[in-house]
Design a protein that fits this description.
Elements lengths: L1 E2 L2 H11 L11 H11 L1 E3 L11 H6 L14 H9 L6 E4 L5 E4 L4 H6 L10 H7 L5 H13 L2 E2 H7 L7 H13 L3 E7 L7 E6 H4 L3 H6 L3 H16 L1 E2 L1 H8 L3 H13 L4 E4 L7 E3 L6
Parallel strand pairs: 1-9
Antiparallel strand pairs: 2-4, 3-4, 5-7, 6-7, 8-10, 9-10
Length: 284
Amino acid sequence: MQVIDLKRLKTHRARTFHLPPAKRLSSPAQALSFVNQRGFIYFWTIKGIDLPSMWTAVAGDRPVADAHDDPGHITWGWKDDALDKRKWYYAKILRGKATMISLDAAPYFYALSENYGSPEEDYLLAYEEGRLTQAAKQIYETLLYGGALNTLDLRRAAKLTNAKESEFNKALEQLQMDFKILPIGVADAGAWHYSHIYEITARYYPDLSEKARGIGETEARVKLLGLYFESVGAAQARDAVKLFGWGADLTVRALTRLIENGKLVEALHPSQKGEWFVLPKLSK
């Protein structure tokens, strides 16, 4: 059994997470290049999840600052300014957290969603089978037939004004995680003069469904898992299950395929228990 080379792993992650000695990202163009190189990243760092983030690449390996004037928060402006530019796919995806996905990787995510090419019918099937809440159905139908709306107007138009804040937000999250809606801009609305504008994914990215059509589920998982390991270098199966939410069996099948293709090897961690998977170049 091979062993993870921790020194090589640290060097690898310094590059893929954009940590020193690499220079911090300092422009929107560099941010776009970073997303495209990695395939997908988090916007913020997420506790308990190893994945590159825009925050870390700009602000360094430190907690997200509470202070609004922290230099690291320049990422917020980059993200908002890009929402209507179709530079990348941005929404609450992985574990319901803000995720930035390259346009090349987006079809592989979409291939695993419950969208089958008919935005007027797919959501009804999901609702009838209990995979979409009533609130999510109302939000989706409001956008489908009424067009893009900011959060405040959407809540009113969807007749969810009296719904709990948590119920409304959970519905927005559910729809984003399944690639049914996404934020496409920011409106000067509400007490904070800041509100996301939401739109139907199939309308905003009309070619996404067609690009995903020929991608099988196994192919999609192998591709995304491969991108994940290219970023983190080494991980356990449970780490991938936690991030993608595919379940242990499907995740192990994809891991096995990557091993068969020579993309990963099984290895031991010098100081941690359990079975690990690592890029061949990071083992010894």
